[in-house]
Amino acid sequence: MLLEDRVALVTGAARGIGRAIAMALAAEGAHxxxxxxxxxxxxxxxxxxxxxxRSAAVRVDISDPAQVRxxxxxxxxxxxxxxxxxxxxxxxxxxxxxxxxxxxxxxxEISVNLSGAFHMIQAVIGPMIEKRWGRIVNISSMAAAxxxxxxxxxxxxxxxxxxxxxxxxxxxxxxxxxxNAVLPGMIGTDLVNAMPAEILQAAVGVTPARRIGxxxxxxxxxxxxxxxxxxxINGAAIPVDGGISxxxxxxxxxxEVRDQGTTERP
Length: 266
Hints:
Elements: E1 7-11, H1 16-27, E2 31-36, H2 41-49, E3 55-59, H3 65-79, E4 84-87, H4 103-131, E5 134-139, H5 143-146, H6 152-172, E6 177-184, H7 190-193, H8 197-206, H9 215-225, E7 237-240, H10 254-260
Parallel strand pairs: 1-2, 1-4, 2-3, 4-5, 5-6, 6-7
Helix pairs in contact: 1-2, 1-9, 3-4, 4-6
């Protein structure tokens, strides 16, 4: 196993990609803490425990640094110091063009998707520095590289994660810590699978792999990046998108899907 008895913490692991990451880490031998604002985080923790690994779940709004501090301390009491942090939590519900995006909606998206990751890293990095070993993986998005129609807050926050990732590497690679970003494309979460058939078909059409990705495929990459086998991979931004970024596809509205053969994605 790649991660035998390592202690991992995954945010946004109640469902979707986050849950798949938690299960992939457990399959490689890690004990997994789960942080989410949703009560289903407990279900993920129970699924991890069913594999024979220790687990704990805490409900936390990661935009609140006090909640993050208390939540991490609770995970630490249950499992030990966090050695692997996966910043997966994020929101993608604020849909509006630039001129119509409400300032409070913009602030909320930045506070969860970007500031939340910052708070989490601050809360766990101390013991990583002391022990000269740590793995941080930030789940960004292909929107960080190409933008996203009507989701300016989401695209900006995910792009910000790339700057955060590179700066953590510059400051802490010397401490035996790696920090990398994963950029998923169209992945078959419940949200994506619920999209209209025309959008899913268009997404497949512009993806060289000609299919939607599986959440487990993101989880496998994260597990590798969390292992000693990836010790010299640092500050990287790795797409998991079936090659869609090679097409430089415009991620437009449904009308643009019909007109241009492009698609929206979360």
